[in-house]
Structure formats: structure tokens, C-alpha cells
Amino acid sequence: MSTHSDLHSERGALAGEHPGRATNPVIKVIDLAWLEFDRPDLDRTEQFAHAFGLSTVLRTQDELHLRGALPSALCLRIRRAPRSAFTGLAFRAASAADVRRLADATGQPVTRLAESLGGVAVNLVDPAGNRVQVVADVLHSSALPTQVPMIHNSGDQFPRTNGTQRPPRVPAVVERLGHVVLQTTNYRRLLDWYLQHFGLIVSDFKFLPGQRDRGPTMSFIRCDQGSVPSDHHTLAMMLGPTDRYVHSAYQVSDLDALAAGGEHLLEQGYYRSWGIGRHIEGSQIFDYWRDPDGILLEHYTDGDRFDASLETGWSEMTTSGLAQWGPPATADFLGIAPNRPEHRRELLAMLTTFRRNNEFDLRALRGLMEAGRS
């Protein structure tokens, strides 16, 4: 296997550190299927979704399904509820046989999904309390029109002759759901649960400044499809004072679609949390937005893809290490903006988190504060 140190992480694992994968997982999921949320106002949610570049698949009085343009690219299942909340995630299994194998291993029944989705599922709850479905044989949706990437002149190559670049300020067409990021007070337990049940592989570990001895406190995790390259991360998780959703990311065609789509969102009065820039882990060009309920979503393009041969990278967690270029990470993106009620709740949660039996202790808090200054 090749090392990871020549890519973007400072070094690989040391002797005895977490291997970044399970030896004998129950199954190997092949992708993220969709995310589930509660929202109080489906009209408002749908209006933002269309401006963000998602398309409506199903709309009833109490439920909204949103998709991307690629085939079978369901992204979000949203239900009407008094409060906005993240309620779960779903992975796609390679077959119904894998769903049954997982059901047998966990002692849970196999259930049929709603007629609008088709297929079968097994319903689990992860150690952080998130509802996790693994599904197979869901109904196949045909492709929708996508945005064609711009043709770029570069160096002494001029494929665009007698032509201009005029990307319109329209919604950036979301092609598919790329990844979701979760925070947990018991990081190691949650990490091992996902690796063991779903055969995921850690692409990159992050550790707190000066605290490598305590092990990793953040991971970017991909699906294991053997020699078939997968997104650098389908799931990411990090240690923090509460168990919560952090953000989710949605692929668009190229930088021009992302940037022009961002101008459209600004013109519609929506709030840019952070961007535009290029990440280090995953290499994506990113642009982060808040929906009307304060949920953080990312447009991205040009992400890395790794096959199963690549070993896990290790590097120190720093705020400056979030991007190769772009504006500094904002307080809103980092979750420390005092004007946001969800951020105030997180600061208050630290007072009780320290009293519980979990991994988020005073040393971890000091490490996160140091990472934020670096």
C-alpha cells in the first residue's frame, strides 16, 4: 500500500495507533443515500432548496423529498415538525443481501421503505443517538439536466476560440449529496461503530495540537469499494461538547457554477457562512451557506477520490489547515458566533459535558482553543 504522507498530511500512523479501518466489518456500504431533517416551514425550506440547486421529488403537506440531478440522487427527506432538527442519515448497501446480513448481525428486522422510495432497509441507532438506515434496491430516478463545466484556456492550450465565458447567475445545479459531518462527545466509540458496521475507511485523522498521545479527535471517512475510487470522505466526525449535525455537502459541476450560484443565493438574501476557498483534506473548492433555519450546507466541486489501497494520513488540527486558499474561517463556520442561538447552546453545554463520562474533557477544550488560534 502507498503512504499518505506525500499527499497532504504531514505523516502517517505511528506504531500502535488506530489503523483507520476494521479488520472484519459486517458489510461495506457503497455511498451515502440521503439525510433526514425536521423543519417547521416546508414552504420556506423548499424555496431555499430550489435557490441552492436542489429539485423537489415529493411534496405533501407533511413531507418534502429533494434530489440532485444525477440518477437516483435523492439528497434529503424532510418532515414537518415544530422545531428544526437533524433526525438521521441513510447509507446505500450494495445489495439487499447486505441489508439482511447487517440486520442479522444487529438483531434488527428488515423493513420495506415507503412506496415513494421502494427497496428495503434496516434501522439502527448509532452510539451518539443518530438514527441510521442502510438501504438497498431503492427506486431508480432518471437524470435531470446538469450544468456543463466551462471550457478553460490555459497556458498555450486554447480549446475555447472565438468564444466567451458568461456563466449565468442562476442556482448551481446540485448533482448529488457528497458527505455529512457529525460532532460527538464520544468520538472513538462512534468512529469504531461506523467502521465495524459499515466497512468505512479513514482517509485522514486529525489530532489536537500537542495531544497526539490521546489519539485522533477528527476523521474524514470514505467508503471501501476496493479498486473503485470513492469520495475522500462520505462521513466526517469530530470530538466536541455536544452530539450534533455540523454540515452536509452537495456536489456541483465546477467553480463557475459554484461561484455564480453563490451570487444568486446572495441576491436572494441568503447568508454565506464561509467561502469561497479550497480545502486541504478532500481538496474540494467549497462555499458554505445557512438555510433559513440555520442549518449549514456546502456547495463543493473538484473533490479527491481514493481507492482502498491508500493508507490513512495523520496531521495536527489547526484552523489555518482548513483551507489551502480562501478567506479565513469565520466564527459562524467554526460554531463560535455569539449571535447564533445554536452556538450559545453549545457553549452552555460545555458546563454539563465535563460532568459526564465522555471524551470531551478540559484537555480537549484547551486543545480545541489552541487549534482555533493556530
Helical residue percent band: 10-25%
The 3D shape can be described as globular
Q: Work out the number of β strands.
A: 20
Most strands sheet: 10 strands, mixed
- Overall mean pLDDT score? 92
Question: Over the alpha carbons, how many angstroms does the gyration radius reach?
Answer: 20 Å
| Number of H- or I-type helical stretches | 7
Extract low-pLDDT stretches. Answer: 1-8
Oligomer: single chain
* Beta-strand proportion: 25-35%
The helix/strand order is: EHEEEEHEEEEHEEEEEHEEEEEEHHH
| Spatial gap, N to C terminus | 32 Å
What does this structure look like?
With 374 residues, this protein is α+β, with helices and mostly antiparallel strands. Helices cover 20% and strands 31% of the residues. It has helices spanning 42-52, 96-106, 187-198, 255-267, 331-334, 341-353, 362-373; strands at 31-39, 55-59, 63-67, 74-80, 85-92, 110-112, 120-125, 131-136, 176-184, 201-207, 218-222, 230-231, 235-239, 244-251, 271-279, 285-290, 296-301, 305-306, 313-316, 323-325. The strands form three sheets. A ten-stranded mixed beta sheet has the order 19-10-11-13-9-14-17-16-15-20, with helices on one face. The protein has an eight-stranded mixed beta sheet with strand order 2-3-4-1-5-8-7-6, with helices on one face. The longest helix is centred in the C-terminal third of the chain and has 13 residues, at 255-267. The relative contact order is 0.17.
Topology:
Elements: E1 31-39, H1 42-52, E2 55-59, E3 63-67, E4 74-80, E5 85-92, H2 96-106, E6 110-112, E7 120-125, E8 131-136, E9 176-184, H3 187-198, E10 201-207, E11 218-222, E12 230-231, E13 235-239, E14 244-251, H4 255-267, E15 271-279, E16 285-290, E17 296-301, E18 305-306, E19 313-316, E20 323-325, H5 331-334, H6 341-353, H7 362-373
Parallel strand pairs: 1-4, 5-8, 9-13, 10-19, 14-17
Antiparallel strand pairs: 1-5, 2-3, 3-4, 6-7, 7-8, 9-14, 10-11, 11-13, 12-18, 15-16, 15-20, 16-17
